[in-house]
């Protein structure tokens, strides 16, 4: 199991691929620093940087790239066969890959969000963002890991989720917000460190329960899918 | 055919007919690219995502046209339609651009292409034209439907129809600007990786992360920075050009006296994307 995790991590970070994950967090912290240097009041830029960039773009996009990268790229390359033929329980494969995806996403998104929160307000806001981002990272990773098992084009399915479900529909039909991980992250942040820039119809209990459901159901369903995984031929 | 020294003549013949040359190759690549963008000539799975986006756009256009013809209220004008649908355009580029260039890198067809008299410039031009046309169709067809809805229910006869045409044509021009800009940036990002998944993620990340920068720059305490804020993101850049040319203030941007800067940056951005694409294809390793 640790070998699977090690190989997965190497697949994510090997050959300077880790550098691909850097621009988004750097941009986030850089923008916060820029505003801080110009002494702009956080009321003016907090919404744009923390919510519009940090929670709506950095967290889901990093989770998408990492979450589909751990398994989807192996399905794509066909190297998944090598893991599947080893005497390992499918459950262990998924759990190892999920652990890598969730922890990498957490580190890459929660650390810059913490820094941004500290720059924007207080250590309390930073801590709240870090906790919420961790919860979000676990839920998003489970979802995107599942996508890479149910579809041959997990990134596009994930993008539909991020852009259409959370982005477009969330603006017009507020009912979908109850089923959007982004809203849970906002709800948790707002509860730990109340601030004026976040606004969500989701309550804290819903947020915690639904995040847990997303995480557990995503992982269990992914294990189930990998249990009956069939290698299709070339994609169309 | 059977000369001395030939042991078996199995009937291979040399081609003596006319050779169509580079232009025909470019055209063939363009047609193939445009068809591939919408999944035509490919399996049903390849059609799902492009037609999903196209379907949503059509649906919105039909709703807009219906509302306008029954109530008479204009929800979106032709140019606002493109602005409002920007998420779907980004998604469409993320679907199609990797299809057009990353697949070629991945499956190693580029060395085959370039072993013909096809130049890198031809390849880039064909792919760029294909993607730009695909995006333009994605915007132009729904705009045309909105036009039809408005033209058939107009109450002022041919004058009303002509007024609609005068609105539609700038709308189509505006869509062309979107198409060219997004095609350039999307292709450039996609041409760096053979993995379609990474290319799609990269395109969306680049487009999405630029939008909040505009918000931050617009809140800085400097009117110059506020006026130049729109330059940071392709979406607001295009909206800024529209505002500069047409002078309507609906986009929420404050251009000040920097309108021409927007146009200059747009031209430079598209040109540099194309030049970088050319540089990218000067040397092609099969991944």
TrEMBL record, chain A:
Keywords from the named record: Membrane, Transmembrane, Transmembrane helix
TM region positions: 48-72, 93-115, 127-147, 154-173, 204-223
Protein name: ABC-2 type transport system permease protein
Automatic annotation (TrEMBL), chain B:
Entry GO MF terms: ABC-type transporter activity
A single GO cellular-component term on record: plasma membrane
Transmembrane segments: 48-67, 126-152, 172-190, 197-218, 261-279
Annotated keywords: Membrane, Transmembrane, Transmembrane helix
Pfam family, one: ABC2_membrane_2
The protein, known as: ABC-2 type transport system permease protein
Native source organism of the sequence: Actinoplanes campanulatus
Lineage of source species: Bacteria, Bacillati, Actinomycetota, Actinomycetes, Micromonosporales
